[in-house]
Amino acid sequence: MDHRHIFVRPARPEDTKKFIDWSLETPNNGFDPEVAKYPSTFVLCAYDKDGPLAYMPVQQVFMMDSVAGKPGASRMQIASALKEFTQALVTQAHVKGVGEIYFLATEDGTNKMAENQLFEELPYRAYRVKVAELEG
After folding, report:
1. Which of 16, 37, 69, 71 has fewest C-beta within 10 Å?
2. C-beta separation of 52 from 88 below 8 A
């Protein structure tokens, strides 16, 4: 078993060709070349004493969390509010260099709203880490 320590650093300009080549050659990694172009994306490099082992682009996204609608508001009013939230986030994405906006839908009405708006359904499972829960 290889017990060499692996470190992580930001990718450097001289890593670009390797990062792109390896990203395209790695099967089933879901690499989207557009993500690397987002202004807020950064790339990490895992390496050991022999050099780079892997690269990972990390994009900063907007994640629409939950909707707290006014009790008694109509479905149309909430749908209109969601549309306006989405438009506001598109504007903020331009301001902050964010390339993607995610919406985790859990209710049929909001699922339909998302499908009728700008959102595309993704074929991925979602996972999360709550950083505050990592320590004691």
Report:
1. 71
2. no
Token couple for 101: 């906006």
Q: Are 79 and 113 in contact (CB under 8 A)?
A: yes
Angle (CA) 85-61-67 rounded to 5° is: 35
Q: What whole-number distance in Å separates Cα of residue 98 and Cα of residue 41?
A: 8
> Are residues 63 and 24 in contact, defined by beta-carbon separation less than 8 angstroms?
no
Task: Give the chain's length.
Answer: 136
Instruction: Dig out the tokens for 17 from the structure.
Output: 């060709």
Burial 49-67 (b: 16+ CB within 10 A, else e): eeebeebebebeebebeeb
For residue 111, the one-letter residue type is: N
What's the mean pLDDT when you consider all of the chain?
91
54, 44 in Cβ contact below 8 A? no
Separation between Cα atoms, residue 52 and residue 7, nearest integer Å: 9
Tens-digit pLDDT profile for residues 61-80: 999 988 899 999 998 898 88
